[in-house]
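Before relying on records like the one below, remember that each one covers exactly one chain. Contacts with other chains, cofactors or solvent are not represented anywhere in the record.
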Amino acid sequence: QVQFVESGGGLVQPGGSLRLSCAASGRTFAFYAMGWYRQTPGKQRELVATITMTGSTNYAESVKGRFTISRDITKNAVYLQMNSLKPEDTAVYYCNTDPPIVVGGRQIWGQGTQVTVSS
């Protein structure tokens, strides 16, 4: 059973930092590109960072230079270091494969972790 468990979110002031973690299970994800996505109410989920099986990374323009994605293949884990946070980074953050994994015709998502950037 494929599962993603995200953690590390919270309330932080503008300019602060957070590190998100994701534990993936139910499959060996070493051969998948992995990504961090975020969603705010009323908006579509957006992909903010990806990392390939070889470690190449890519970022949305809105987070480039501030966020860093990494992974530990031995642990099926993915991380997102977020620095210089802005109020517009407020969202629920999810990890998944890139593109999102589909099982039985359905995309599988975890509960996500809430990040709130506010003074």
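The chain has a mean pLDDT of 96.
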